[in-house]
Amino acid sequence: MWFWLRQDALPSWQRRRTVPTILDPYRDHLEARWQAGCRNAAEFARGLIRAGADIRPRVVRNWAMRRRRASTDVLDATPGSMSPPPWRPPSINRTARLLQADPSTLVSGDRHFLDRLPVEAPDLAKSVAVATRFADVAQRRSGESPEAWLTAAAATSLAKFAVGLERDRDALHGTITTPWSTSPVEGLIGRLKMLKRTVFGRAGFVLLRQRALTAI
Question: For residue range 16-42, what is the model confidence (pLDDT) as tens digits?
Fold first, then answer.
């Protein structure tokens, strides 16, 4: 760096030599499918393997990631552009948060996405409706019985979740029918967990007990 600072001109960068890759014979095919609208790297890899290519899916995923970042349909706004950035398609986790959010608090792009989601993915829309029903049951906003909800959930993608609840049916009934909750002591529970983790592997029960009693 100091060498560059002493110079009167910017350093002359040398272009990196292009290194051949195993994907080179298939780039035209991949680019054609990309331009046709496909963005599924796994589908790209399956198509190449079916065609006899000796290639790993990871290599195709890396190509798709670089292609997505360099594409004209990148999600970020063009540097220096005065136009607002385009709406960014949500990740799986963000989609879950959007489905639980109040629609009145969402921006127009997110609201339009949620409006189109039931049309494009009816099975997902059914699962979302069943999940909303469970929230109503658990928070006692609905008169629906847990058994009725478990039956409805068995026909959706929430089936495995419903099986887990079925194994702990007594706890589910207790949550709905009793007024007890751990909410008043959640802060204390979090503090005790923090104390436990800070001394884990370095101290025994005696010190942990003393720190817990002092914290309480």
Answer: 666 788 888 888 888 888 888 888 888
Instruction: Show Cβ contacts of residue 195 under 8 Å, excluding neighbours closer than 6 positions.
Output: 208, 211, 212, 215
Q: Which residue has the higher pLDDT, 2 or 118?
A: 118
182 CB-near residues (< 8 Å, 6+ apart): 189
Residues 159, 153 contacting (CB under 8 angstroms)? yes
- DSSP for 119-139, please give it: HH-HHHHHHHHHHHHHHHHHT
CA angle 51, 57, 61 (to 5 degrees): 120
Phi and psi for 7 in degrees, rounded to 5?
-80, 155
The Cα–Cα gap between 108 and 11 comes to: 47
Residue 47, exposed/middle/buried by CB under 10 A (0-12, 13-18, 19+)?
middle
